[in-house]
TrEMBL record:
Presence of the UniProt keyword Coiled coil in the record: no
PANTHER family: DEHYDROGENASE/REDUCTASE SDR FAMILY MEMBER 7B (PTHR44196), SHORT-CHAIN DEHYDROGENASE-RELATED (PTHR44196:SF2)
Coiled-coil parts of chain: none
Keywords: Oxidoreductase
Taxonomic lineage: Bacteria, Pseudomonadati, Bacteroidota, Cytophagia, Cytophagales
Identification of the protein by name: SDR family oxidoreductase
The keyword Oxidoreductase belongs to this UniProt entry's keyword annotation: yes
Entry-linked SUPFAM superfamilies: NAD(P)-binding Rossmann-fold domains
Length: 263
């Protein structure tokens, strides 16, 4: 055990679980946060199976509730856990025309993808800056770089995460802090995202990246203190496309990816 602790939200599956694997492999204590205790227990079982006596703390909390970040912070403080690495992975999407999608789902999405991320960052970053040590990984997306018709709110939350992260990165440099913050911007990835977002049959879901590949790329970049992680060739292509193409064309391309692959 290296006596460091990582807290990962959305840790029961997908990229979050694979990031938890990376920390467990490197002998971190891992604090796993997700909504369902049974899924957290299964994630812990898999980590114990692979890494033996890794220290695992399970926190079943729902980040769609505005008070949840304070509850998580209070719980880690009560347990005497100093969080050395924070991973804000939790998030979900919804697919469809904005006029047709459910308002409550999208307000919850804003809460989980953006508000909870900011709240947890605020709570844990202050201590990191005081200690002059810590790492934060924020989950963005290739959707951070362009408007995405039929996932308008989801893409907007990821654009928010990008802008927020880059601003705080600059502040940390101004403060001459050793704390680093990295934004991970994966392409469509083989997780439960497409099922939750009702996008299983779209072109974007037809050739997803590996969750392990994405997580390991993001983890390595976070450990190197990189500002941005583009973990696959597809992610890099999307980013560079956003630098040269107008938003109207980017929106058309993103919309094409969200059309049915069955056509």
């Amino acid at each position: 055990m290296n006596d460091q602790t990582a807290l990962i939200t959305g840790a029961s599956s997908g990229i979050g679980f694979e990031l938890a694997r990376c920390f467990a492999r490197d002998d971190y204590r891992v604090v796993l946060v997700a909504r369902h205790l049974d899924e957290l227990k299964e994630a812990a079982r898999l980590l114990h199976q692979e890494f033996g006596g890794v220290d695992i703390v399970l926190l079943p909390f729902d980040l769609s509730h505005p008070q949840t970040p304070e509850l998580i912070f209070a719980e880690t403080n009560e347990r005497g856990l100093q969080i050395d690495a924070l991973v804000n992975d939790a998030g979900f999407g919804e697919t469809g025309y904005f006029t047709d999608t459910d308002m409550d789902t999208e307000l919850n999405m804003i809460q989980v993808n953006a508000a909870a991320l900011v709240h947890l960052t605020k709570l844990y970053l202050r201590g990191m800056v005081e200690r002059n040590y810590g790492r934060i990984l924020q989950l963005g997306s290739i959707a951070s770089f362009s408007p995405s018709p039929c996932q308008a709110v989801y893409a907007a939350t990821k654009a928010f995460v990008l802008s927020f992260t880059e601003a705080v990165q600059h502040e940390l440099k101004q403060q001459k802090s050793a704390v680093t913050m990295t934004i991970l911007c994966p392409p469509p990835t083989d997780t439960n995202f497409f099922h939750v977002a009702h996008a299983e049959h779209t072109r974007a879901a037809s050739h997803p990246a590996s969750a392990r590949e994405v997580a390991e790329g993001g983890y390595d970049d976070m450990m190197e203190g990189e500002a941005r992680s583009l973990p696959t060739v597809s992610a890099k292509f999307n980013f560079f496309s956003s630098l040269v193409l107008p938003d109207s064309m980017l929106a058309t391309l993103m919309n094409t990816q969200l059309q049915s692959a069955r056509r």
